Amino acid sequence: MKTLLINGKVYVERGQFAEAVLVEDGIIKAVGANDELKAVSGEAEIIDCEGRTVVPGFNDSHLHLLDVGRNRYQASLSGCRSIDELIQTCRDYIEKYPERVKDGMKASGWNQDLFAEKRMPTRHDLDKISTEIPIVLSRVCHHIDALNTKAIEVLGVDENFPEIPGGEIQREENGYPNGIFCEIYEFTRQALPPVTEEELDTIITLAMDYASSRGLTSVQSNDLHTGSDYEENMAGYHRIYKSGKAKLRYRVQGSFATVDDLKKYVETGDFGPAQEVGELYKMGPVKLFKDGSLGGRTAYMRQDYNDAPGEVGIECITVEDMDAYCQAAKELGLQVVTHVIGDRAVSETLDAYENALVGGKNVNRNALVHCQITDKALLQRIADLEVPVMAQPVFLDYDMTIVEDRCGKELASTSYAFGTLEKLGAHVSYGTDSDVEDCNPLANIYHAVTRKRKDETPEGGFYPEECVDVYTAVDAYTIGSAQVEFQEDKKGRIKPGYFADLVVLDKDIFTVDPVEIRDMDPVLTMMDGKITYRKEEN
Prior knowledge:
Blueprint: E1 2-6, E2 9-13, E3 16-18, E4 20-24, E5 27-32, H1 34-38, E6 45-48, E7 53-56, E8 58-63, H2 65-73, H3 83-96, E9 105-110, H4 123-126, E10 135-139, E11 144-147, H5 149-155, E12 168-171, E13 177-182, H6 185-188, H7 197-213, E14 216-225, H8 230-242, E15 249-255, H9 259-267, E16 281-289, H10 319-332, E17 336-340, H11 343-355, E18 367-370, H12 376-384, E19 389-391, H13 396-399, H14 403-407, H15 409-412, H16 418-423, E20 428-430, H17 441-450, H18 470-477, H19 479-484, E21 502-505, H20 514-517, E22 522-527, E23 530-534
C-alpha cells in the first residue's frame, strides 16, 4: 500500500523542509519535491496537504494511557472548584450511569488548591456522595486518594491498622482514617472491583481515539503494576493489538512490587520480548517511584518546604531498595525510569544510577521522569551522567503558582529547567503524565516555548531564560522521545527508512505566534502508514 503526501511543508530537521513524502507498507520511502516523488509513486493514494506543515508523529515519553481512557469513561473532577461541586459531580454521574458504579466508584482530577475550601476532601465529604458503595477519588497527581467510609471498611483499615511503608494514612484524633491516603495507590484501588474485559477494551479504545486525535502516534505508558492487575491489563492490550485495531505504538513502563517480582516476571517471560506484538507493542523499562507530588507536598526535598516547616515530603522507596532494583535491572539488561520531583529524590536517584553504570556509561539509558526541582549542580550532574530527562512542560501551568511558595525563589529559578538542560547537552523528551494533564502535545509545546499559563500569564514568561524554541520542543516530542526508547534510528523523523508516523497540522507551528500553538489542532494523524485520525470538515 502506497500513500503520497504532496504540497506540504514537511519538517525534516532544524531549518530543513521538503514538499512531499512517499509512504509504502508503513515505512517512509522517500522525502523530496512534489514532481520528484510523483514520478516514482505509481498507483499511490494522494493526500494533498494544501500547504500545511507536516511533523513526525508525537511520542509521549511518559503517561498512563489507561487513566486517559478511564477519565473519559468515569466522572472527571478536574473542573471542580469546591468540595461541594465535587460531591455534586459524583452524584450526577451515579444518577446518569448507575450500572457503572453499582459496585464502587473511581474518579480522578481534583486539586485542593483550586477548591474554595483550600483543603482536601475527607471521608465525611465523600460519605455525602454515598455510604452504600466504596468511593475512591484520586487527586490530579494520582499520589493522593480520598476515600469514603465504605471504601475504608472494605480495605479493613481502622485505628489499629499499621502504616504502609512508603505511604501515609492520615488519621483523625481517635486514630481512625480521615479518608486521605498518600502514596499507596495500589492499596486503595483494592477497595473497588476490577473492571470487566468489555470495560477495559472500551477504556483502551477511548484513550487511543483521543490520543490520535491530538497527534500522538506513540506512547510510553505506565499501566502494568504487579500486585494488582498486571495480567488483566496486559491481556487487554494484547486483545487490542492482536485485533489490528490499535492506533498507537505503545512501550510498556512496568512497575514491580518487589525486586523478586521483577526477576520472576523477566524469567518467566511475562515481562519480555515474548509479550511484544511486532513493532507496535513493545516492552520497555522498569518504572520506579521515588517520591510524590509538589502540589500534595509529598515530593521528597533536601530542605523543609518553604510553606510547611518540618515537612520534607515522602520517600516512596529507600536508598537500599532503589539500589537493589537498579542492580537487578543492570544484570537483566533493562532500563530504569524513575518518578522524581523533589531535589532530594533527584539526587538519590542519580546516586543509584551512578552505582549501576556499565563501564562508566549509562548504557541502559536509565532516565528521570519529571525531574522538576533542581539546582545548577544537579542539572550539570544529569548532563555529565548522560541521564535522559522525561519532562512535562505542561506542569508549569499549575506549578508556577505554587513552586516559589513551596521551594523559595532561588530554587524555583533553577527548576523546570528545560532551557538549561538543552544548553548542557542533556537528552530531553516530552510527555504529559496524562491523565494528570491533558495528553495534548501542542498545548505542552506552548508551555515549553512561552513558559506561560493557559491564560498567557505571566507577561514574558516564568523564568523566561528557561524557554526553548519551537524546533527544540518539537524535537523533544519526536526524536527525543524516540531516543529514550532506543528507537532514534527508526522513529521521530520524516526520513527514508523511518516509520510512517506523522501529523499534518492546521497551522505552521514554526512561524505562528507562539501563543497560537496552544490552540492548534492536527488535521490528519498517520501511524504505521495508516490514517488514525482525520479532522472533520465544518
